[in-house]
Design a protein that fits this description.
about 375 residues, alpha/beta, Rossmann fold, 2 domains, 12 helices, disordered N terminus
Length: about 375
């Protein structure tokens, strides 16, 4: 009887063990869910469209190469149309219904900030693709970002202005989240650098003509150069109005328009303007010793071959976001939220399209102002200046 009992016990143990192995195999085969909400259509589509295309392309590529941790990636995406309320709803759906492992998205600052309280409460790692400093300053435990901050952009622009001898400038900015934050950071940085803002004008997202604001700047005594901080259609309108008024002062834009689509919108009016951007727009101008050269060249060639359209700085933010997510999951050895979050926070020396990322508990962006390159529009194309 004892032998019979032992045989049965052994059989049950074997069955249980087999069940555990089968369960583990099924679990291992489950896809890693990458959630995303982006402004693919609407006024910020020039951001969201290349971001989504980038995520789709590299999720496919990674899956073809065997996935991550032996599992395929599944991209779950929603189009928030640039609306913060929609972004919040989609973030909630990604967390509660789709139960994603990590979120890579948020084309705009408004959309990102609408989602932040949800991801912080649910404790889901979130890598934003938006630019404002408020996203990661002060540090939020579960929130990271790939673009340089608007403060870094202000630092890079004002440093270039000062190097050219300009210490009194005119500022014009959009009143939306990105423009308003950029204006605040520019005012703060200018004060620290001993640069005087002698004219300060704004415009709303619905404005179709900014000649009045630019005329005020032109008529202000002492203005040596002008900076526009905004994104969307507004900066292109400002650029065209600037040329129409015949203003000859050196003109700068922010990184919010660093794309070939802006050149198309602004046309010949953009000639001579400068802005801070990633080297993605001028990859062949980089020296061979630059660690970013191969990265940006590869991304540019792969994106343009796949989509038959020009590469965009904003798509580069999505590339870095996805690759940082993959590196963190691989380092964590799982999709455990806390482990992935900790791995993200400790990424060092990752050379991406945007720059070299060095994250820390005190810095969830991991970039500095020097990751920006100063570009100038010459003969209708981008030229690397510094």
């Amino acid at each position: 009887m004892l032998k019979t009992f032992m045989r049965r016990a052994g059989k049950f143990a074997a069955i249980a063990a087999a069940g555990l192995v089968m369960s583990a195999s099924v679990q291992a085969a489950e896809p890693i869910k990458i959630g995303s909400f982006l402004s693919v259509t609407g006024p910020a589509s020039f951001l969201g469209d290349p971001e989504l295309k980038t995520l789709q392309m590299y999720v496919d590529k990674i899956n073809e190469d065997g996935g991550v941790l032996g599992r395929q990636l599944e991209l779950i995406h929603y189009d928030d149309v640039g609306n913060a309320s929609s972004a919040r709803n989609f973030a909630s759906r990604l967390i509660r219904s789709d139960q994603v492992d990590i979120i890579v998205g948020g084309s705009t600052t408004g959309a990102t900030m609408a989602a932040v309280p949800l991801v912080e409460q649910a404790k889901v790692p979130f890598i934003s693709l938006a630019g404002a400093v408020v996203i990661t300053t002060p540090v939020k435990e579960w929130v990271f970002k790939t673009p340089q901050t608007d403060r870094m952009a202000a630092e890079r622009i004002l440093t270039d202005m000062k190097d050219r001898g300009f210490t009194k400038i005119g500022l014009i900015s959009g009143t939306g989240g990105f423009g308003a934050s950029g204006r605040k950071q520019t005012l703060d940085v200018a004060k620290d650098m001993g640069i005087e803002i002698v004219a300060d004008e704004t415009y709303s997202g619905s404005d179709t003509d900014m000649t009045a604001q630019l005329t005020n700047i032109r008529n202000t005594d002492g203005v040596q150069a002008v900076l526009n901080f905004g994104f969307g259609q507004g900066p292109a309108i400002v650029t065209r109005n600037y040329a129409q008024l015949g203003i000859k002062l050196p003109f700068y834009q922010s990184h919010g328009v660093a794309s070939d689509s802006f050149l198309k919108l602004a046309g010949d009016s953009a000639e001579g303007l400068r802005l801070p951007a990633s080297p993605l727009l001028v990859p062949n101008a980089l020296p061979d010793s630059d660690p970013q050269k191969a990265v940006v060249q590869n991304y540019k060639s792969e994106y343009e071959a796949r989509w038959d359209s020009k590469v965009s700085t904003f798509g580069g933010y999505a590339y870095d976001g996805l690759m940082l997510a993959v590196k963190a999951i691989e380092a964590a050895g799982s999709t455990d939220h806390a482990a992935v979050r900790e791995a993200l926070e400790n990424i060092k020396g990752y050379v991406g399209v945007t720059g070299e990322f060095n994250m820390s508990p005190e810095d969830h962006n991991g970039l500095d102002a020097d990751s920006f390159r100063i570009l100038e529009v010459q003969n209708g194309d981008w030229k690397l200046i510094d």
